[in-house]
Design a protein that fits this description.
- By secondary structure, the protein is α+β, with helices and mostly antiparallel strands.
Length: 140
């Protein structure tokens, strides 16, 4: 499953030249990830209430073209992997069909009480069936 979200580059996310700051893309990725989970029927808030958390353990961003203040952007997010104690999301950010950024984030599952790594809960592990590996998949 690929979830698309429309974003608009805000002034506060840009530098003095009006170009979106490189760190802002990680915030965009977070929006895509939360919306992907919501579309899959999983509430991040409920995950946390169950005592689990997902922490970013790896992030990669490939900057292809700059985005600018007030650009309307489309973020495509897909789940590419669910492991025993982690999951990975892939992202493609587009402006009018042109790829601006691609990337991924890997998240480790932790017990919120102890902060120690734990197995991905069953309600998350079932999401592996929603991975997007076929045509139209988010590029890796």
């Amino acid at each position: 499953m690929i979830k698309e979200v429309t974003l608009r580059a805000r002034y506060s996310e840009t530098d003095a030249q009006g170009i979106v700051n490189n760190a802002s893309y990680l915030s965009y990725f977070e929006v895509g990830r939360v919306e992907w989970l919501r579309a899959a029927g999983v509430s991040y808030r409920e995950i946390e209430r169950s005592g689990y958390g997902f922490v970013v353990v790896e992030a990669y961003v490939n900057y292809r073209r700059p985005a600018f203040f007030d650009d309307e952007l489309t973020l495509r997010t897909g789940l590419s992997e669910v492991g025993r104690a982690s999951m990975r999301f892939e992202y493609t950010l587009l402006r009018g069909g042109e790829t601006v950024v691609t990337g991924y984030t890997r998240h480790g599952c932790i017990d919120l009480t102890t902060g120690r790594p734990v197995r991905v809960p069953k309600e998350i592990a079932r999401l592996a069936a929603l991975r997007e590996d076929g045509p139209g998949a988010v590029p890796r």
